[in-house]
Amino acid sequence: MDSKYNLVGGKSCPKFPTKKPATVVNFxxxxxxxxxxxxxxxxxxxxxxxxxxxxxxxxxxGVRNRLISEIQKHSTVIIIGETGSGKTTQIPQxxxxxxxxxxxxxxITQPRRVAAITLSQRVSQEMNTDCGAIVGYTVRFEDVTSxxxxxxxxxxxxxLREAMLDTLLMSYSIIVLDEAxxxxxxxxxxxxxxxxxxxxxxEKLLKPxxxxxxxxxxDVDHFSDYFGSVPILYLEGRQHPIQVxxxxxxxxxYVFSCLVTIFQIHQDAPANQDILVFLxxxxxxxAMARSIRLIVKDLDGxxxxxxxxxxxxxxxxxxxxxxxxPTPQGMRKVILxxxxxxxxxxxxxxxxxxxxxxxxxxxxHPGTGLDVLKVQRISQAQAWQRTGRAGRESxxxxxxVYTFQEFDAMLKNSIPEIQRCNLTNxxxxxxxxEIDPLTFNFLDKPPKELVNGALQQLKQLGAIDxxxxxxxxxxxxxxxxxPLDPRFSKIxxxxxxxxxxxxxxxxxxxxxxxSVFVIPPSKREKAVAAxxxxxxxxxxxxxxxxxxxxFSAVTQKKQWCHxxxxxxxxxxxxxxxxxxxAELCQRCKxxxxxxxxxxxxxxxxxxxGLFMNIAELQRERQYLTVESRQIVAIHPSSVLYSLHPxxxxxTEVIQTGSCYLRQVSQVDPEWLRDIVPEYVQxxxxxxxxx
DNA sequence: ATTGGCGGA
Length: 690
Description:
It is a single chain. The protein is α/β, with parallel strands linked by helices. Among the domains are: about 20-30 and about 240-415, P-loop containing nucleotide triphosphate hydrolases (Rossmann fold), CATH 3.40.50.300; about 50-235, Rossmann fold, CATH 3.40.50.300; about 610-690. About 40% of the residues lie in helices and about 20% in strands. The strands form 3 sheets. It has an 8-stranded mixed beta sheet with strand order 1-2-11-18-15-12-14-13, sandwiched between helices. Helix 8 (about 185-205) links the parallel strand 8 and strand 9 (about 210-215). Helix 7 (about 155-165) crosses helix 8 (about 185-205). It is globular, with a radius of gyration of 27 Å. The N and C termini lie far apart (about 65 Å). It binds one DNA strand through helix 7, helix 13 and strand 16. It holds the Pfam family OB_NTP_bind.
């Protein structure tokens, strides 16, 4: 298969068919030692002696001196390491021990907050210091560093924010871009920023910047080429062998095939060997959970007791935590998960992985402004990532519900997010750094249409003067200060003109968080009834405002959220976002203001940033978007779903089955003529407003 | 007539 694969892991064996009854899904196998990415090490409470022993037993420890000398010799290196190699915790310590950091900081980026926090806690424990002293972390809302911090774990997004203040990142002597294979938008932009900073610092004879890229991918030449053929160092991991099976025949229903496979395994495997199944979404997972529970009833006594655990991000946290409880003796867990279990969540004790080979992917279409959420085939790299989830404690098995030929036809690597998402924010950030997004040295260039679409929208919002121009207006500079979609930043900055900053802050904060509504399937009617008292007939935005106003007024927040079927965690997050935004507004010298009960002001203010998102009722329930002439419908979760007003403003349009408008408010077409007269003229919207 | 993969500032 892939030659590099064999370098890191064990030997590849020829695959052979297994003898199974013809009524089941037939698999062929090939024994492989899975290639894996690095997960944050769990913080375990241990004495200092044991900690040192643990450190010394890590594979990376044995090659310490070679690693140091390579990193010392080269200004940029790529390090490929398997899970359990200890690269993320040890290599920064090694560099610090020999003072490679000199008079600067070693910054280590992570795609996720929890990883940055737990890693820095682990490393400060290993170095026998308090977290926040020599070792610290910086994530949104939380900065646990001090004057003496030398090893700083931070989210990639945080380092990008720091680059906004200093493009040369002068406080750092070494930057480690960890988990680079995940290719988050933030890491991808950082690639270019860090490379530019390194070159400029050399050019200006400033202190040099060393770059270390850490990844688990097979496609490492790509990273190396980007920096000009820099050395690649491979690290051994501590991964157990995993036997991989492919379906011998093409399956036409991957959900059903997964279900069949679960029971094939369940009937043969000893108790306490758990199964992890990768599926694509909440609905699919809940449906399969119901099927399994029904089938289990008919199996009585013949097999170990089988317990089903759904796992997806919108699941309340206490239900997510259930997954981590060890399986009771004589039982078996089957976890039905989205790709959350691929990277974000690590479950111990998994012996079997069943891979549907599918994933839900969001793709932005700049011409129509439409986001499409579609089920697609995964990439080979992703398939290996899933496979690896079976071999964390001991040897394991992975059943791929697709043939080897289908595997072979998959993309080697997934399309990076930067090539398929809305780039308005990225482009605004680059322009704020005086970087031309059309010539920026991306690791992988996004399609021209995405960059142009972003420039177009920034021009509409008044952030730039001309689409060709790369200079921000005063408005654009202010917008770039906010950690928001530029349309929301625009609304926030307009709020002073409408005297409703208090209200807009609450709404924008809630739009930045996940849904606050909790609707357990078993208590659906009760939950909806509880939500109804917050509903506003003018739409979802004012409904969100009503919720936030009530939330901030009550003292017993936990109980209140429970009674009203609202998600406490998401409301608290929104409240943190709100404080941060309020502080930024204050820094922009904006006066606080409130429209109290005159909430029409709020909807008018929303128009200043979302005027391109207007839709008009065509016939019953069918709307037409004014700018892109798309046929759409209001999302069933909207309070306007059954009211269908003549003219609405929407926050986003997403195609799942049909095209749906989400977060919708009724607006008076007359407002458009007052608020965005040029836009109305340009788009000949006079029929709408007359 | 009927519903939201995962992160992050």
